[in-house]
Amino acid sequence: VQLQESGPGLVKPSQTLSLTCTVSGGSITSNNYYWGWIRQPPGKGLEWIGYISYSGSTYYSPSLKSRTSISRDTSNNQFSLQLSSVTPEDTAVYYCSRAYGNRWWPTYGMDYWGKGTLVTVSS
User: Fold this and answer.
1) What span, in angstroms and rounded, lies between the C-alpha atoms of 100 and 25?
2) H helical segments located in the chain
3) Is residue 47 exposed (0-12), middle (13-18) or buried (19+ Cβ within 10 Å)?
4) How does pLDDT run across 48-104, given as a tens digit for each residue?
5) Residue 71, Cβ neighbours under 10 Å: how many?
6) Is 102 buried (19+), middle (13-18) or exposed (0-12) by CB count in 10 A?
């Protein structure tokens, strides 16, 4: 399985950050798999943003929920992240990942990651 992030590397404050993850070697609709977004700001730890499940259900971090939307394009085997009203504090390397679990939650954790893409929020 391979995951590849794509999208603009520079976003202006107050705009919406949009990234897409293209998955190869596995279907995003395969049962019990969850597809996630994680970020790492410079000098800080990893922060989970959210998941979209094999059935299309979405789960978001409470701290980002009001600004986050994760969607999917099953015909192209892609899933996407939109983060609205960004500020410089949203500057980070953004990763997409795959996780495995059951029908309710990816209990077994993440097993495949993309290489990550740096998104800088600046005017």
Assistant:
1) 15
2) none
3) middle
4) 999 999 999 999 999 999 999 999 999 999 999 999 999 999 999 999 999 999 888
5) 13
6) exposed
The answer to whether residues 59 and 71 touch, using CB atoms and an 8 Å cutoff, is: no
Round to whole Å and give the CA distance between 72 and 78.
6
Residue that is written with structure tokens 């795959």 in the block: 98
